[in-house]
Design a protein that fits this description.
heterodimer; A: alpha/beta; Rossmann fold; 3 domains; 13 helices; 22 strands; about 30% helix; B: 8 strands
Chain lengths: ~450, ~350
């Protein structure tokens, strides 16, 4: 039985090509691997290799023919007598792809935030640093698969002393000092997570995680999807994010919108000690890759934090930190404190502001923000990062999409200025959002 | 005959290496070679069919064929035991078949069907099998090297004696994270065999134009990583080197580096015009060093019947044709699958 040789597709975009030259003629013996023809594609001239063996029985498309569609029979090959099992022609492409069923809410949207915060009982006044350390220790006691690695996390007790005491309690197998090699140790941790361990990767700061961002996004965030759900990546990436103080442009950047952009990641940004402890515990338990954006300045600040053994803050739930009626202030991480101070100033002036602490950026609890805006009819977002495609832009856009008719004024953004962060004390202060900026923004719309 | 080959495989595994008599050694070697012949030919027939289906537009995007390099994965795999891990780059079809993944599921993934290993969501470069300890299938050049180091780390953490084979090309060997991984693996004595498949060209750039290092097996030397160069067109040579490397790792000596010198007959991907090397160079490798023909000659000199080898090939061709039919007749993923597997729920 003769085998058809079809016009091959030789690139992802090729639909037709020119049959430039035949290198075999009718009657020639053809062996697998022989070049039989040259084809000019949309990119280059390519050689066509024979796959089957046999004698070239007939040439169906002459050389020089242009616009030969992919899959057109171009020659017939007489077989060596055995049925090589010809490949059936491809099924016709469907004319229109059926519209994929979208989930009801936006993919990144969280559950409704209407439920009140659970009362966890007694609290202790502890620093954010202690809260983070306690969260890791509690989870490491419960699950041997959990371990911490990063630069200076063990013997040095943490560059910012967040991992203080962990080496003593858990030993060098589970609290691992790495060399300064973010790309390498992040990839290593992701590989360990793919095989069922639960690493906590500490970046000395998130600025250094840029060395490793390929592993975070291309390996950690996408593998579950690319494997059809077969292989997940339960891992936590944590460390200080954003500006510290006088460390200039390379060490002062907010990565919130970078990571929140990526499906397959969860992103949280704690403000208080309770946020830090509860969210980090939830992140460690989560079967997905979770980015925990901490803040160096907050490490030393203390807040009341529940002492309950099982205290946890579910990912995807914002918190109303201060109720109000005339404007909604939406913030995360250290900017929650800025928004709170602004709210106090506004209260003195007779303006009632509601402050929402997002806590999670992905999934984003937009329902809590919507509920608030439907009450106050005004929104001001507050973030330390740059404005372009930032978290404020996203929150405000979702508000416009979901409750445009409730808005009595344009949504406003307060954000870090659109410049690399300067070193000089005066310039740095001018570049980062201050409570006054929030007050000024509110005064423009109330 | 598939049964005969499978039987041969089974016997090969059970017997292992050292049979006492000369005749016994010949017999054991013949069985190993028969198994290698079968496994290499399975990969070649699979890849030829994949190339065909690509030409027909049934496989889209990037498709990197393994034709010519079959001896590398088959020889390496012969040294592995249960629970050992394998991870590689995007030229991964051969590795999947060598670990025992079903050709039908692999081919169905290539055609983007629901029955593929990733339910059609990964494609040629992104397939995984927890069952076979195959960890992908990675599209970013060099990324799998750090990930493989992490798989080895998980063995170290768990205190078992499993070993991870981490494959990458000579092109990837220049990536910074490869050297970072060498350092980490050597520092922590991780059971990782780094396998550089040196097929001479990273896409269109020859190794001489890309690497200042002339002996890639010594790229781990600054970290004290033992390294060996291996003839990757000779499956027995690969197997012998693999046994040594895997044993060293399993014994807790830390990582090992193999530079396996091989050759790909096809382009970097399907859309590679291949102008960076001559047709004569390819034909010379095919004619003089083909890994499958080499094994065929050895088998014949050990008394194997040419007709028997032909029957193995016929059975494989039918098996691959069935895989191709399966890959074309399977349904595309349901549109609802677009939104699944982004996150693990709950």
């Amino acid at each position: 039985m003769a085998t058809q040789i079809l016009m091959p597709a030789l690139s992802p975009t090729m639909t037709e090509g020119k049959l430039a030259r035949w290198l075999k003629k009718v009657g020639d013996d053809v062996r697998a691997g022989d070049v039989i023809a040259e084809i000019e594609t949309d990119k280059a001239t390519m050689e066509v290799e024979a796959v089957d063996e046999g004698k070239l029985a007939q040439i169906l498309v002459d050389e020089g023919a242009e616009g030969v569609a992919v899959n057109t029979p171009i020659a017939l090959l007489a077989g060596d007598g055995e049925d090589q099992g010809r490949v059936a022609p491809p099924p016709p492409p469907p004319h229109e792809a059926p519209a994929a069923a979208r989930p009801a809410a936006t993919a990144a949207a969280g559950q409704t935030g209407a439920a009140p915060e659970k009362d966890w009982g007694p609290t202790a006044h502890i620093s954010v640093r202690e809260a983070l350390r306690d969260a890791m220790a509690l989870e490491m006691r419960q699950d041997d698969r959990v371990f911490l690695l990063g630069e200076e996390v063990a013997q040095y007790q943490g560059a910012y002393k967040v991992s203080q005491g962990l080496l003593d309690e858990f030993g060098p197998r589970r609290v691992i000092d790495t060399p300064i090699t973010e790309h390498g140790f992040t990839g290593m941790a992701v590989g360990a997570a793919m095989n069922g361990l639960k690493p906590i990767v500490e970046f000395m700061t998130f600025n250094f995680a840029m060395q490793a961002i390929d592993q975070i996004i291309n390996s950690a965030a996408k593998t579950l999807y690319m494997s059809g759900g077969q292989m997940g990546c339960p891992i936590v990436f944590r460390g200080p994010n954003g500006a510290a103080s006088r460390v200039a442009a390379q060490h002062s950047q907010c990565y919130a919108s970078w990571y929140a952009h990526v499906p397959g990641l969860k992103v949280v940004a704690p403000w208080s000690s309770a946020d830090a402890k509860g969210l980090l515990r939830a992140a460690i338990r989560d079967p997905n890759p979770v980015i925990v954006l901490e803040n160096e300045i907050l490490y030393g600040q203390s807040f009341d934090c529940p002492t309950a053994e099982d205290f946890v803050v579910p990912i995807g739930r914002a918190k109303v930190e201060r109720p109000g009626t005339q404007v909604t202030l939406v913030a995360f991480s250290i900017m929650v404190g800025v928004a709170m101070r602004a709210a106090e100033t506004l209260a003195e002036a007779g303006i009632s502001a509601e402050v929402i602490n997002l806590r999670s950026l992905r999934p984003l609890d937009i329902a809590t923000v919507v509920a608030s805006v439907k009450k106050t009819n005004r929104i001001v977002t507050v973030e330390e990062g740059w404005p372009f495609a930032g978290i404020g832009a996203e929150v405000n856009m979702q508000i416009i999409e979901q409750c445009f008719d409730w808005l009595d004024a344009p949504p406003m953004r307060v954000h870090g200025l659109d410049v690399p962060l300067p070193y000089a004390a005066n310039l740095e202060k001018l570049a980062l959002p201050q409570p006054d900026w929030v007050v000024d923004a509110v005064r423009k719309i109330v | 005959m598939a049964q005969a080959a499978a039987e041969a495989k089974k016997r090969g595994r059970e017997k292992g290496n050292g049979s006492g008599t000369h005749a016994g050694q010949d017999g054991a070697r013949r069985e190993r070679l028969l198994r290698a012949y079968h496994d290499m030919l399975l990969i070649r027939r699979f890849e030829e069919k994949a190339g065909q289906l690509y030409g027909m537009g049934l496989i889209g995007g990037f498709c990197h064929l393994y034709i010519g390099q079959e001896a590398v994965v088959v020889g390496m795999q012969m040294a592995l035991g249960p629970g050992d891990q394998v991870i590689t780059s995007y030229r991964d079809h051969g590795h999947m078949l060598a670990t025992g993944m079903d050709p039908r599921g692999v081919m169905a993934e290539l055609t983007g069907r629901a029955t593929g290993y990733s339910h059609g969501k990964g494609g040629s470069m992104h397939m995984f099998s927890k069952e076979k300890n195959f960890f992908g299938g990675h599209g970013i050049v060099g990324a799998q090297v750090s990930l493989g180091t992490g798989l080895a780390f998980s063995n170290w953490y768990r205190g078992n004696d499993r070993v991870c084979l981490t494959y990458f090309g000579e092109g990837a060997s220049n990536q910074g994270q490869v050297f970072e991984s060498f350092n980490l693996a050597a520092l922590m004595k991780l059971p990782c065999v780094f396998v550089i498949e040196n097929n001479k060209y990273g896409m269109g750039t020859s190794v001489e134009r890309a690497s200042a290092s002339r002996d890639l097996s010594q790229n781990g030397a600054p970290w004290g990583i033992a390294g060996t160069q291996v003839d990757g067109m000779d499956v027995e040579a690969v197997h012998a080197a693999a046994e040594q490397a895997v044993a060293a790792c399993r014994a807790g000596n830390g990582p090992y580096l193999l530079e396996v010198k091989t050759y790909r007959y096809r382009g970097h991907s399907m859309s590679d015009p291949g102008k960076y090397r001559t047709r004569e160079e390819i034909q010379k490798m095919r004619a003089e060093h083909d890994c499958i023909e080499t094994v065929q000659h050895r088998l014949e000199s050990l008394g194997a019947d040419a007709a028997e080898l032909k029957r193995i090939d016929d059975v494989l061709k039918r098996q691959i044709q069935e895989a191709a039919d399966y890959a074309q007749s399977s349904p595309e993923p349901d549109p609802s699958q677009l939104w699944t597997d982004v996150l693990v729920e709950g």
